[in-house]
Amino acid sequence: EAEVAQSPRYKITEKSQAVAFWCDPISGHATLYWYRQILGQGPELLVQFQDESVVDDSQLPKDRFSAERLKGVDSTLKIQPAELGDSAMYLCASSPRPRGELFFGEGSRLTVL
Amino acid sequence: DQQVKQNSPSLSVQEGRISILNCDYTNSMFDYFLWYKKYPAEGPTFLISISSIKDKNEDGRFTVFLNKSAKHLSLHIVPSQPGDSAVYFCAASATSGTYKYIFGTGTRLKVLA
Question: Residue B91: its chain A contacts at CB < 8 A?
Answer without folding.
Answer: 102
